[in-house]
């Protein structure tokens, strides 16, 4: 085939695989080679799963040759954030030095579902230690080193799904699975110039995924396009008897293009605190969105959104890692602040935590009322381009940090959102646009993002990385 | 002593009693700042008025295996 598979969307790769113009074995070998050669440059990889990958690729090749095509992920390589359990002696490290040798004897449900879809696991990808739940303030917060952005060697890849973002952006895998408790899919997707979908809470089973916050954790895809995110979500979505939070709502990706018009909302102060280029690119994005719908200003009730979600996150994370914290095991973590910051969470009183949970209900009802009148709220994906590697960054997860009402509301209320590239900002780094929808309306945000990408070419721009002719 | 300061002192004393022996002086200083920020944040949470009917979310659900 004349076109290089590198930077081809999953949808196009699938066409080539199905038509047997590209061999799954050759694809796996190509991406394994890239992970091996280029992965270290981005600190993107924890474990290359070569033996498992080659077996799965050979199986896919045989099945497709025999006419047993499973669907658009059949024979497609992918990487998984290293907080998803994998059997077969493949370590699952949670990005944390104290767990770097630890193995599970089962596959997480998301991994099992991708296996069933015929996808080929080629790597466990790097992540911020314990998904950032201990309060890190800098990129260097994993035993694999800071995630490096393929767009600039001195820029962070974002986190906590660091390797999932950089590996897709650099063409080391066609897609990846990440997780988000607050910002961990949208941040690396936005900083690395790719698409990242945070599904509704409960859309994807968390069984076998590291628990950071039981009521906030979501698994979702990072891909080159919004369309690819839909293809991957369909494979991993669904109920699971092993995860009581997984909702029993069948979900199918609705890909059919329509001439529908969208109603977009922009919350007051959406660009507050944004870098100039982020604001300018957002304004340009709104011009594009006006061609596919209407835009109206939205005012949210005055509630301490960041505070509500942050309190819940800090308490749940402290409880989820109680053993590690109480034993002093956090002293083995990489970021110096992760070694003691969690102790301060004992200062959050039970009554205040319950107050946050009560306010969460108010927040969920208020945002549902707003979202019942629009298809999606839009805003900048991130307020800045990616920070420098040696820079302390602002995070809404910590107090006195960057405002992130969409992130606080979206994660606190369990709403779907997608982030797609919308321009280039300072230091030649990508900026991004976020669409957030009503709960269980993944098809709406995907449709809006797809319509945006049909009218722009930012998703066709890639970082200056090695691509074979 | 003003009330916020007293609250911070009390909460920090709790944290220090539990974990102080494993931290350096610099870490303890940082931790005190963290407790101060937390205490201030919790006061902001308490300042929001709720109705008696505003329940924690998600609401409690009883468990029955065969249900």
Structural class based on helices, strands and sheet pairing of chain A? alpha/beta
Q: What is the molecular shape of chain A?
A: globular
Low-confidence stretches of chain A: none
Q: Kindly report how far apart the N and C termini of chain B lie.
A: 55 Å
Termini of chain A, distance in Å? 12 Å
Strand content of chain A: 5-15%
Oligomeric organization of the protein chains? heterodimer
Written description of the protein model:
The complex is a heterodimer of chains A (469) and B (67). With 469 residues, chain A is α/β, with parallel strands linked by helices. In chain A, 32% of the residues lie in helices and 13% in strands. Chain A has helices at 10-18, 24-38, 50-65, 109-116, 162-169, 186-192, 226-236, 276-289, 305-320, 322-326, 350-371, 405-412, 442-454, and strands at residues 45-48, 77-81, 120-125, 175-180, 195-198, 218-223, 262-267, 293-298, 376-380, 417-424, 430-436. Chain A has an 11-stranded mixed sheet with strand order 1-3-2-4-6-5-10-11-9-7-8, with helices on both faces. In chain A, helix 8 (276-289) links the parallel strand 7 and strand 8 (293-298). The longest helix of chain A is centred in the C-terminal third of the chain and has 22 residues, at 350-371. Chain B contains 2 helices and no strands. By secondary structure, chain B is mostly helical. Chain B has helices at residues 3-19, 25-46. The mean pLDDT of chain B is 93. The longest helix of chain B is centred in the middle third of the chain and has 22 residues, at 25-46. The interface between A and B is medium-sized, with 33 and 30 residues.
Supply the key terms.
heterodimer; A: 469 residues; alpha/beta; B: 67 residues; mainly alpha
Task: Give a summary of the structure in a few sentences.
The complex is a heterodimer of chains A (469) and B (67). Chain A has 469 residues and is α/β, with parallel strands linked by helices.
